[in-house]
Amino acid sequence: MRCLFPIRPSPPMAGRARHGIVSSIVVLVIVVLTILIVQFHHMSRQSQSATLGLEQREVAHQMVELGMEEAFTRLQRETLDGKSAGANWLIRREARPFPLPLPYASKKILDLCRSSQDPVIEADATIVMSDFRNVDSRGNKYYGSEGVGSVKLSVRLWITSAAKAKGRPPYAELIRMHDYKVVAVRTARDNGTERAVYAQNFPLDYALLVRKGFEEFNNTPFGRNLNNNQARLVIKQSGSPDTMGKVVIGGTGSDKFVFLNVHEKFWKEDGTGLVPKPSTPTFKVTFDDCLILFPKIKDMIDQKIDQIMTQLDQQSSSDLMPPPDRATIEQQIYQVLRQSLYGIFTFRHLPAVRDDYNGPDLQEERRIINLIAAREDGPGANIERGIELIGPDLDAFRTCPPDQLLEGDIRSRFLKRVDFHMDGTPNDKIDAAMIEDIKKKTSIYCVETTVDTGAGGALADRQKLVEGLRTLSSKYSKDFFSRLIASYPYKIGVTESTPPGFRTLNHRNLAGAAIPLETSGESGVQPFFHVNLRGKRMETSDLLEQVDIIDPDKGTINLNGYADVQGDVTIGQAGQTLKINGQGGIFSAKGSITINANLEKGSDEAFCVFFTRLGNITVNAERVEASLVALGGGTGRIIFTKPVTVKGAVVTEFLSLANWAAGQHTFIYDPILKSRNPSTDLYVVNLGLPITFQRLVDGRL
Amino acid sequence: MMRRRGFSLIEILIACFLLAVVLLTLLWMNRHSHLSSMDAYYEGIAMSVAREPLEIFRGMGYAWLDLYRQGKADLTGSPLLKACPPGEWFDLAEAEPGLYPAEACDLKRRITVAPADAEGIKGFAITVEIAPSRQTRVDTWLSRDFVTLKSYVTEKK
């Protein structure tokens, strides 16, 4: 068959050549085109593959992020409980990794991956040993296990469990580091010995510490910081020395003593109270000594002799006898009186303050006390009721040696009452009526203001009596004056001999040097000074709610270590009650603290410290189960505007009792604050939210 | 007579057919490659846009997310947060100018936060969906209707 459409005729050779060129060009174009398109296709596939890979990595990233979310949450929960395994692992800085279970993430990552995948995720934490610091910027060492370090969290993901089983490296691994802080919130202290190291939480050792107690005692009108009828303070303690806090009135010692007027409930007649029993309850003096005190007795006797002489004169004139010799009569009478009459001093130690001065004897006692006090000035003039350092009774002293409860020169003040009267044996040679008359007219309280009191009867002559008492005091080396005595330590069981005082222990400053409590400044006594160890720091008080330290909705204060607020701190509102959970404190760095809400412990182990170094603490609540510390700046005070019960430690520069609301204020020491054994030191761990380092490794198949 | 050489019709038809097959294949490959490339490109953009709120929300934390979920979170403070309204589609073209590249402005985003408590852990699941916002190149080239990314945030103290 012939071609109906022959190709255009051409020379045989030329046509073959052209045909060959066209074909070659066509083939070449097609080949080039094919190569380019295949290359383009390859690139697009690569691009698609890369995007898919990125997407897979993104999903893997979200999976390990999820694992990290849970890992951090789990570790943080461990740190919220200072006794948990995780917290102990951090406190002891153990080298082994701490495994963190991820049940939540293991379940939720199934939502993120394809159904054909069988992902496995695991996490652990490791302490970065080289990062740990246990000294502050000045080189002062922190207490015990305290310090700041880094913890590394690692989350690993395998897309298939088979890959993990075969020991393949994880598909993705996320590593993060967070700072953590370990701070001791309770440290061991034996009440009888000094601390060997500085512990910033040392205020918790004290049921009451008034650093400038002596200064305030002297400067406050009538020493009303310690003796005050209006604002009465009772410090309750009970149990063993292990559970009691110390009471320190600072600035005392070396004759700088403070006194507490003893109330009658601390007075026991047998001398087992705070007032000792007199060593010599009575003291007998001769008739001649009595004449020194009461020269008017001679007048009385002279009158009697005159009467006798008159009678004898009359009798002798009628009997025509010579008149009797007056000197002989007088000698005989005095001889009989010396044999028959004598003086008795009676010594009693009585409380300085009674609730009720009913009855003539007690009214007289009160009048005497008032008169004695009126002759004093400054604190000595104060005969108001002293604060009760050991509670409403003497039980604390009975279960704990006094010097393990009290520090400093704190003394009991009480009335030494000396009564005098004359007594005599019946004698037929002397007129009984005269003896009775003398006894009646010489009964006195032996105070220097005897005449003013009206006591002592007609025979008393103020000046002669006082001179006489001084003469007898010198003669017998015995004090025959009634006085308010403040030379006995505030303790039971003391005697009139050399009563021992209380020891004053040194404190430690940041550098660990032993210093007196009164030392101020940065090298002095500075509680809670390591700002590096504070868990949270914020500018204003309202941020406490944002970080859930105060939860007004739940009515809780949630603590884990110390939170620092730069300005003033206000806690709650009037009528509100907040429960305290956890252990730690809320500090005001530069301001004051006002507590409006009642505060209750959420559990026995919970405790909270409110601390201000430069400001004051004002409590407008009726119950505060928290410790209050206003110490370090030199001016701190704690003011209670209502009668209050505080359960915790109270530590302040000045007590300011005179500025408190009238009524009874009760401080109850919280035994949870006390530890004698270092093994029971209580640490809390603060795990920082900010990420200090992160590394994501992924795509390792 | 000299025989004139040429191609028969059959030969030409076969050649044309083969050429057509080759060219069509190349054309298909080219188009497919182009589609894949563009899909990957826009998918990458979509993934970036989806990842953004996850990172932000993880930083904001659980408590803030709880407020966000209830519509109580303050989103006015940041242009990025303004572009993350809860539970509704947000056209990224309406975001502050310059916040997103031009291609991303053809996308819209929806963020859903749902409680996801389990195993004693309180958490929120955050789901971010990305879709083309209008009939543009993105809509043409992006093969999937939605690009979805999900993550979780747990409660911390």
Number of domains of chain A: 3
Strand content of chain A: 25-35%
The most extensive interface, with participating residues per chain, is:
A-B, 50 and 45 residues
- Segments of chain B where pLDDT lies below 50 for 5+ residues? none
Indicate the proportion of strand residues of chain B.
Answer: 15-25%
Which strand order does the major sheet of chain B show?
1-2-3-4
| Overall strand count of chain A | 32
Characterize the main sheet of chain A: 11 strands, mixed
Listing every helix as H and every strand as E from the N terminus to the C terminus, the arrangement of chain B reads HHHEEEHE
Number of strands of chain B: 4
- Roughly how much helix do the residues of chain B carry, as a percent range? 40-55%
Seen as an oligomer or otherwise, the chain set is heterodimer
Through-space gap between termini of chain B? 105 Å
Q: Tell me about the largest β-sheet of chain B.
A: 4 strands, antiparallel
Low-confidence stretches of chain A: 1-7, 450-455
pLDDT averaged over residues of chain A: 87
Q: What class would the helix/strand composition of chain B place it in?
A: alpha+beta
Keywords (chain B): Membrane, Transmembrane, Transmembrane helix
Organism (chain B): Candidatus Ozemobacter sibiricus
Pfam family, one (chain B): N_methyl
Protein name (chain B): Prepilin-type N-terminal cleavage/methylation domain-containing protein
